Amino acid sequence: MSRKWPEFPVLELLVGVDDHGSLSAAARLAGMAQPNASRAIKQLERQFGMTLLQRSPTGSILTPQGTVIAHWARRVLSDACRLLDVAEGLRAERSAELTVGASMTVAEHLMPGWLGQFRRLHSDVTIHLQVHNSTQVFERINNRICDVGFVESPTVPRPLKSLTVARDRLVVVVHPTHPWARRRKALSVSELALTPLLVREPGSGTRTTLDVALQEYERAAPLLELGSAAAIRTSVLAGVGPAVMSTLAVAEQVAAGELKVIDVDGLELDRVLRAVWRGARQLDGPAGELVRLVRRVGAEN
């Protein structure tokens, strides 16, 4: 059976009569004209089927039934105030600052688009982006410096939680004048392992992925260790040497013919990009909203 709920303003009037002893005082404090207040009380009386106010030439006071209803109206209004406080608290939580950690590759090539879309949907959230290698992102998540991180490392340390949000692939790239660029036969994994390469510093996701892929082979010492994909790309473009890089980092240069991708027989360097965080299994709040958006974007691409 459906019920018609009383309006909050008329309940406030009833409580006001209980507090201040007259309908005129209650209407004045509620910012309502007295004739409107009187009509609202009469409508409530018809709805409840009882007299709530005892009217007289000198004013109006609550009847015994009105006193009981006013008592319960006070509790309803108190709970409604709590509901508004909770809603305000949730709004403030959504407006809280969100600190995001991202590894270099993700920060350079994916994060601007992700955060741009997130800002359009959640303009009330202030975002701080910290860019580090994957190991440093893990440390900042573990120390609760960042709310959520995005990395391309093949493993995630405990007790951090993780979720796959996108996929990526590493490729061997050289300058078009490099001897490998003229090969008709694919490079072997052992040849790659024995070649000094331009590599990222230990702790980066790209370096870790490469080290894991070549861990069973004899390795040459790195040609150079550099702290960003941009620095490695610039070095390869300058003809310094070969490198293993994300397709995200070299797509434009490969398309323009400025870099050449070298096939390596039997080497698979596909990898997943993960969101990482510490705490509950289900990430909520602005950080959870960001992860869900990133997954949707990844599914669409």
From TrEMBL:
It comes from the Bacteria. SUPFAM superfamilies: Periplasmic binding protein-like II (SSF53850), Winged helix' DNA-binding domain (SSF46785). The keyword Ligase does not apply. One of its GO terms (molecular function) is transcription cis-regulatory region binding. This is DNA-binding transcriptional regulator, LysR family. InterPro entries: LysR_HTH_N (IPR000847), LysR_subst-bd (IPR005119), WH-like_DNA-bd_sf (IPR036388), WH_DNA-bd_sf (IPR036390). Gene3D superfamilies: Periplasmic binding protein-like II, Winged helix-like DNA-binding domain superfamily/Winged helix DNA-binding domain. Residues 6-63 form the HTH lysR-type domain. Belongs to the LysR transcriptional regulatory family. The keyword Transcription regulation applies. The lineage of its organism: Bacteria, Bacillati, Actinomycetota, Actinomycetes, Mycobacteriales. Coiled coil: none annotated. It holds the Pfam family LysR_substrate. Keywords: DNA-binding, Transcription, Transcription regulation.
